[in-house]
Design goal:
The protein has 11 helices and 8 strands. By secondary structure, it is of the alpha/beta class. The protein has one domain: TIM Barrel (Alpha-Beta Barrel). It has an 8-stranded parallel barrel, surrounded by 6 helices. Helix 10 runs parallel beside helix 11. The longest helix is centred in the last third of the chain and has 17 residues. It is globular, with a radius of gyration of 17 Å. The model has no long low-confidence stretch (mean pLDDT 95).
Amino acid sequence: MTATRTRLVLGNWKMHGNLADNTKLLNALLAAPRAATTTQMGVCVPFPYLAQTALALSGSSIAWGAQDISVHAQGAYTGEVSGGMLKDFSCHYVLVGHSERRAMHAESDQLVSDKARAALTAGLTPVVCVGESLAERDAGQAVSVITRQLAPVLALGSEAVLKMVIAYEPVWAIGTGRTATPEQAQEVHAAIRAALKGAGAEQVQILYGGSVKAANAASLFAMPDIDGALVGGASLVAEDFLAIAA
C-alpha cells in the first residue's frame, strides 16, 4: 500500500446483532485507544440498527453504513431502502454487490453498477464487492470474472469511480475459514489496480475480504495493492476487529 492510500477496515455484520449485543460491541470499539493508528474504521450494520449505531458512533472516528441500497429513490418498492433513507442516519458507506447478494438475490453486474450509482447520487460511498467462485478460480478464470464484474462500474467514469471503494472477496473464502494467500490476493488486487488505472482511478482503495482474522491481517496488508479489509465474522468480536485495524 502506498502512503497516498489510507488503510480502511470495514466490518460487515451481515444478519447478526441485537440491541444488547450491539451496545456491548460498539462501546468496546469506542473505548479502545486508537491514537497510534491512521487506519480508518467503519461498520456496516443491518438496517434496523442504523439508528442505534449512528447514536453510538456520532462524533467518533468510526464511520458506519448499510449493507445494501435500492436503485430507486422512492416509490412502491416494498422492502427496499433508498440512499436518501440511509443518509437520514448519516451513513457514510454502503455495500453493493456482496457475493451473498449476487448469489441469493440474483444481482447482476449491471444492477450492482446501478446500485453504486444510486449510492453516489445520495452522497454515499459505495463499497463495490467482486469475487470469483472456487470453480472459477480452479478454471483459471479469477481475473476474467473480476474484470467482467467491474466493467459496468468502470463504465460510470473516473469521476464516479474515484468516489468508491472496491472490495475483493473470493467467494470460496467467505465464511469458510479458508483465506487466499497474500500472494493470491495480491495477484487479483494488482489486476484490479490495473483496471482502475485504465479508468483513471488508480488511487481507489481496494480491500480484501474472506475470513480475515487478526492472525492473517498483517501479512495481507503487507501486499502493495491491498489497502485494508472487509471483515465478516471477526468484526462481531471487538478484540478481534480492533486487532485487525491496529
